[in-house]
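Researcher: Quick sanity check before group meeting.
Model: Go ahead. Protein one:
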Amino acid sequence: MMLEDNSDVTATQPSDSKEVDDITKLKGKNAFDKVVKRIMTSSTSDKFEELYKVGPVLGKGGFGLVYAGLRTRDGTKVAIKHVAKMKIKEWGYISGSRVPMEVCLLYLLGDSRVNGVVKLIDYFERDDSFIIVMERPDLCKDLFDFITEKKILEEQLARKFFIQIVETVMACTKFGVIHRDIKDENILVDLTDLKLKLIDFGSGTFLKNNSYTKYDGTRVYSPPEWIQTGRYEGEGATVWSLGILLYDMVCGDIPFETDDQICSGELKFSFLVSDQCRELIRKCLQVDVKERVKLNDVLSHPWLSTSECEEITKITQTKSLPIPCVPTRATNNLNSVGSSNTSCTPPQLALMKTNERKCVIHDIEISDIKHSDIALKQLIFEKKRN
């Protein structure tokens, strides 16, 4: 399917009427009654080959491969995700056609309804898979790599990022969507203006008032109630993952690695994390979900309204989006996403990211660090990892 502007198409309700009822109660009206300005034209995989050129692998996750790509007609950079149908666990509907839930959610959030979510451009169905085409900023990196490079984010920058993510998540809930895998690897940082985009809705679904019994997100970001009971509510799980994310930004790593640690909720901070920031993290990471801060109350916390005397310096770099070099035996497979005769073995880019963050920091020169508190945080980070 090719998505563009200027024609009326109604997004069709999912088959689960209970979920639709829950969304209706949440929002006061049915989210799927909205008419979306689109042109929908049927398109085969051959048409995809004409419209896009596929480049190297950008990343690999549990649901599929993501390639760098270019739109042929204007050279626009895109991200192309290839997902096998057998790996799709949840489905949605657009104009009566069954599509992966990820496509359905991105479609619902599109047309600039939620600016902090990656934009869906096209999608195509093959016999055994779907191809999802999304926007790709010219100069960006995921938040995991951004934090790894900086070791620890200054609270001023962490605050700027966290506000953006919370606002995006709250906007998603207004459209009845829950991401369920909020983490640094699923957030893109535009290095030209420090704007964030939430990506990879492969674990997402429709928000509902009752509990979920399936969780496909990242285990170390999962809430304790899921580990203990096999059930969780959307808002509580979302707030928990936001707490993990904020801790990750200001401390340089996630707080928990095992189920026991998650269920105990014991937090250890470096002394350079401010009291207000620690308080907000603790409110998000309350083991008792009833004591956990509500999503709508997060942005009113004092730490997020603290004014700073210095503006965040805009990050400028000359390098474009880092794209790994993928060895190939031939070039005639450049434009065959997911084809059985692909001759390259994609690197395991995303699978070992947690271990990458654990490498010890060496040779920190205080004179080379712009802010001495960052140097101290790095030294503490080194000591903790030793």
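Researcher: Fine. The other one?
Model: Protein two, sequence then structure:
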Amino acid sequence: MPSSPCTLCNWGRLHASPESPPLVGSLLVSRLFMYPDQSYYGRMALVCSRHVEDVLTLPQPDYRAMCDDLHIAAQLMSALFPESRLNLAQLGNREAHLHWHIIPRRSGDYNEGAAPWPHPVVDIGYERLRALAEQASRLLEQIANRNRSPL
């Protein structure tokens, strides 16, 4: 398979290797990854499964599904880190591929009370990142199944 110049497309192709952040799980129209920079411990990225550059080029049904995926990812983050407040950010300034940053914020964080950027980059190592992804993946499955159940 040819390599794509898009970093986030490559995350999906390489998710089983240390060259890409660990995959937490696949949702309706997106994939949830542990973010390589763990300056905010537990940070994840929700990445559209296909290459779409912004929300305006995403068909309305897919946009709704992406919002459902984002809601599930936020529930996951809240369950993993109940003491945190969530920052959800969709920017696209550096990577022209539709994605959201899901950032747990805690008292005492770098940039406390302000936007999460800029910040020092923290590399916790691939094995710790993978272990965190596995823990999140187990919980994600429970949350996704609960969200699919009729009320």
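Researcher: One line on it for the slide.
Model: The mean pLDDT is 90.
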